[in-house]
Amino acid sequence: MIPEIGHFALALALSLAVVQSVMPILGASRGNVRWMQSARSSAIGQVFFVGVAFAALMRSFVVSDFTVRNVAENSHSLKPLLFKIAGTWGSHEGSLLLWVLILTVFGAGVAVLGSNIPAATKARTLSVQAWISVGFLSFLLFTSNPFDRVFPPPADGSDLNPLLQDVGLAMHPPLLYFGYVGFSIVFSFAVAALIEGRIDAAWARWVRPWTLAAWMSLTAGIALGSWWAYYELGWGGWWFWDPVENVSFMPWLLGTALLHSAIVTEKRDAFKSWTILLAILTFSLSLLGTFIVRSGLLTSVHAFAVDPERGIYILGLLALSIGGSLTLYAWRAPVMEGGGLFRPISREAGLLVNNLILAAATGTVLFGTLYPLLLEALTGDKISVGPPFFNAAFVPMMLVLGLFMGAGPFLSWKRADLAGVLQRIRFVAGLAVLVTLAVWYLISGGPFLAYVSILIAVWLLLATLREWALRIKFMEAPLSETLRRARNLPRASHGMTLAHVGLAVAMIGMIGSSAWKSEEIVFVTPGTDVTIAGFDVTFTGAERLRGPNYIADRGRLEVRRDGEPVTTLYPERRSYPVAQSTTTESAIRSTLAGDLYASISEPASEEAASGEAWTLRILYEPLVNFIWLGALMLVAGGALSLSDRRLRVGVPRRTRPHGDLRLPAE
Amino acid sequence: MKRLFAVVPLVVAVVLGGFFLWGLNPERDPSEIPSVLISQPAPEFDLPSVPGVDVPGLGRADLTDTPGPVVINVFASWCVPCKAEHAVLTRFVERYGLRLFGINYKDEPKDAATWLSDLGNPYARIGSDRSGRAGIEWGISGVPETFIVGRDGTVLYRYVGPIVGEEAVAKFTTALTQAGALDRELGS
What we know:
The complex is a heterodimer of chains A (666) and B (188).
Chain A: H1 2-30, H2 33-62, H3 69-74, H4 81-86, H5 92-113, H6 119-143, H7 167-196, H8 201-232, H9 243-268, H10 272-295, H11 308-332, H12 347-379, H13 387-407, H14 418-442, H15 448-471, H16 479-488, H17 491-515, E1 518-524, E2 529-532, E3 535-546, E4 551-561, E5 564-569, E6 572-576, E7 581-585, E8 587-590, E9 594-601, E10 614-622, H18 625-642
Antiparallel strand pairs in A: 1-10, 2-3, 3-4, 4-5, 4-6, 6-7, 8-9, 9-10
Helix pairs in contact in A: 1-2, 1-6, 2-5, 2-6, 5-6, 5-7, 6-7, 6-11, 7-8, 7-10, 8-9, 8-18, 9-10, 9-12, 10-11, 12-13, 13-15, 14-15, 15-17, 17-18
Chain B: H1 2-23, E1 46-47, E2 58-59, E3 70-75, H2 80-96, E4 100-105, H3 109-119, E5 125-129, H4 133-138, E6 145-149, E7 155-160, H5 166-179
Parallel strand pairs in B: 3-4, 4-5
Antiparallel strand pairs in B: 1-2, 3-6, 6-7
InterPro entries (chain B): Periplasmic_diS_OxRdtase_DsbE, Redoxin, Thioredoxin-like_sf, Thioredoxin_CS, Thioredoxin_domain, Thioredoxin_ResA/DsbE_sf
Protein name (chain B): Cytochrome c biogenesis protein CcmG, thiol:disulfide interchange protein DsbE
Subcellular location (chain B): Cell envelope
């Protein structure tokens, strides 16, 4: 009965979405206030009914109702409760339901919280949001119904892919989707503005909190995904340039550009049609990601089950939404006049450079991701584009971005005083060079690019802190004055500092762990010693253990440094009989200086039969935790900006023409 | 001009959409990487030996009139999966008398020499392909990659990626058996 309620709730949500996609926008064009206001109740109704459906599916998973096909295929009665719950979004159908739920959450969010948005704009935005809703709810109901029954029901389920049975990954999709789908509301705002034919500073101000919220969540989701890949896949890598990773990274890159260009639209009334285009493209890339992951277009280690029928359906949705919005853009954008003239050296120009680099980087990742498909279509050759392409093309762009990011916040709007800025950053630049030389002296032997990257990361870190210190007159004024300034500085400004520092910290982690990683792959039998990065590791054997739904071989590694015991590591190899697959549970000794990372697997040699010999993979990853620490700072910086009350004030203030407080470019 | 720029995103989207539509063809399997070389003679190439490594170089001439099929493995010291694969290949050579040749792809000779002296050298011949030119001739998409070449120099089989793990080893063993490249029977 419960699954039928869920199914019915989805149908009701679809009907509401259909109504909402027509009524408010007609109301806006005819000036009918009642019709416009209907969006509020239908948006709330939609989120309610999709919520009911989601709860119904979750309940079916929790009680292991194997009459529901989706539960039978993706769950098992012996699975821990947490993973039964996470199983709700572990399959194509369930994750799509989560997708739609988040879509409606954002719609309802604007309906409820957007009291400062003019009625007509809000009505149009919510109608556009409902168009997306209609597309995806019908996709769900017609091709991927999560409530399909199976008769006779199987005695037990066939289990969730064990790789996905992990806390990090249980949390990863909700966060990722919140970001991915969150950009839908920004898209809706953009399309509404194009329909209205008007975009101004106020528009940018309404859009910014939603962009920030989506961006933060996407940042957290991507970071969590890379952390999961790092400790669960057993290879010790945190980024693989896999198509599925790329498709979540592209909206992040473009969303970052959007975040910055919306500031220019808000403060200086410039970059208008560019901001609109970014809003459309960011969500288009989210949709493209959904398409690639679910259509089997490209190979990936973690794509969902492939079904060409679904692929065609999503491609149709893509054609309507992306094609439609870009057609509208081509038609309406040219008539929107830009404002706010600026000099080549100004905050605007700095943000323009930021936008160009981020857009180019997005284009590079898109090209690299789709190149195998394009080549195959044109010549029939099948190739794969691997990390070398992305590293060679992408990393230099990010380094240039880091260089500009350090200097950008020093520039003032409209026209900056180059000599003054240079004088302020001279000291910091010198310091960054000294730090790099010190690093080079202490750890020589790394690749040249690593030192260049260190220089830029340190430069970004120091320049960002210096700019912040200047603003609060740190060490230049009495402490009380500094504290007062720090308090009076807009939170968004602190947020920018924190986020930029976070990026520098993450960069340091990425450089450290890729340039100075050491690694040993050895065959071991009990008693074998391995030396790595100053640690002496002894393999003392493996024992067989029984878990709730798996059998594990657990290796034991005694770690010593200079004869002193440091720790004991227990890497595991688990095999899940029901799902017929195995996972690697790496053992990690984590410190801020670096991770000692061990994983074991069955050896390729014949001794496997006797269970004595193992392939031990042991790595030392210097500074690797800085990556996630930096990501955390990015998210915290975003949260700080989001809590800035100026974002919630209805009418935007224009930049003060002669203020000494330069406004932040967060 | 402005109007023209505004149309560009739409045009790009439509072109990409066309590719996607093509890509959804249900008969297409993106994970299958066939080689244009299969059933074709092995390409022309001639590679010097790796300085510091005590086996001769490798060229097209070494592949014809061989006593039996040979295996050509493309590897590099900078390639992490190659290291894992190395043990598997060594086992094939030691236990079943596999004739294994190597192409050392875009590698520093001294790194390759260290790598081989650390792990052991199962290769009867190794050609040093520093420029990656031979790699292009062979049409490799990445390292490691492994080819089985018949007695007359015809490419019989291509394996992309490391031969590591039960499934991969089983696949490769089947291909070797079919090609008649194993001297002794498996498991004996």
